[in-house]
Amino acid sequence: MTTKVFQKFDEELFLKILNTLKDPIWILDNKGNVLFVNQAVYENFSSIQIDELIGQNVMEMEERGLFSPSMARLVIEQKQFISTTQITQNNIPTLVSSDYIPDENGDIQYIVTHARELTKAFNQSSELEKIELILQRYKQQIRQLILQKNQQNEDFYVGKSKATQHISAWSQKVADIETTILLTGETGVGKTAFAYQIHQLSSRNNKPFIHLDCGAIPESLIESELFGYKKGAFTGANASGKLGLIAAANQGTLFLDEIGEFPFHLQSKLLQFLQNKTYRMIGDNQVQQADVRIIAATNVNLLERIKEGTFRKDLYYRLNILPMEIPPLRERKEDIIPLLNFYLSKFNKKYGRQHTLSKSLMDTLYHYSWEGNVRELENLIERLVITSDGPKIDIEDLPSDFPLQQSRQILLQNVEEISLPIYLEEIEKNIIMKTYNETNSTWKTAKKLGVSQSYITRRLKKFNLKISGKKLVEN
């Protein structure tokens, strides 16, 4: 019955139906030549006239950079339904699905492709969440359980700032979206921890999370580490060959840290894997497939690397589908106290200690600039837990190379945030330094200030002061 009614549609009506659709529709022949596109296509390719598209080959258009990858090429190569993200000439990430209509022999006769901007796909997903509210509540509860469980692990990130909460919420939203993610930010901000959080929140959480630091492996070895090699592929190779990290991460997540350091001559091979999920091991002509979710991270400006000619533009757009910048720790100070407590607990447990941090030390570290970000904070707390003798770690326990003066200057500039004991200590320190530099004697300083000489000596140690020549200076 439906077929009979459909046959009554004339060609003009059928074209009106296709042009009514708001998503781009492409109809191609089995060689990838364009037979028809609906009106929505021209909104994405506004620089191309209608007559210019018909008859063009989409694989040639791919080579000209109008989009990447060509869905027709993937369907022709794999002869199956394909759904992936595609980058258009306007650098708009698009969710694209493509399938073929077979002829009587089962071969490809026509190819039909449907596209939707990723932002629109997100909006549609948001509407779907409203309809499936109960299901989403269950999913949210499950993810909260995962968060609570993993916050006890040393590799999980903690923080209370708006920036951190925003990134955590974003991580939950994108966790199950099967496309690449690019994390950016200064060294030590916690990119690895956020990548691991995304993996744990995804449906791949019970599969491998493989971390490759692209800047830590010699350029001559990174290809074999990532893609693996066959037996006898090169001199010195393992006699039985070696599986690469892509194979090790199958069905899981591969985290490519410091992607800006990835060798230029291998970037095309990485791009091929990102587009097709296929690769070749060194010394092997056989194409391998792997189901791997890619998360990349960098502390450099990749657009500058593109200008320098050391990073491929097409690889950047393939990686930059879901970008997220992680601010430095100095811009999210609300995270500092939770991080101090987190790492104190971690290293107390690791080294069998029961240290606490004094209020004055907490205030000092809160106002410190943390140029090395979370990694610097973690390393300092571990050092303090190891080297401190008493149960309470105080300012005098800080290592001699810690820039205490910088922290105190910042602290005094934010007097409204300082506790009264810390503020009074700063005043006392400045009075002692001023008096000593006038008298050049601890005995005369003590007499003038009405305290004992031993009191002044203890204060010099507490405030990390030393005598240099005839002046008292901060160590």
Automatic annotation (TrEMBL):
UniProt GO BP: regulation of DNA-templated transcription
Keywords, ordered alphabetically: Aromatic hydrocarbons catabolism, ATP-binding, Coiled coil, Nucleotide-binding
SMART domains hit by this protein: AAA, PAS
Keyword Acyltransferase: no
Coiled-coil boundaries: 128-155
A Pfam match: PAS
Domain PAS: 10-43
Annotated GO MF terms: ATP binding; DNA binding
The UniProt record lists the keyword Secreted: no
Residue ranges occupied by any Sigma-54 factor interaction domain in the UniProt entry: 157-386
Name under which the protein is recorded: HTH-type transcriptional regulatory protein TyrR
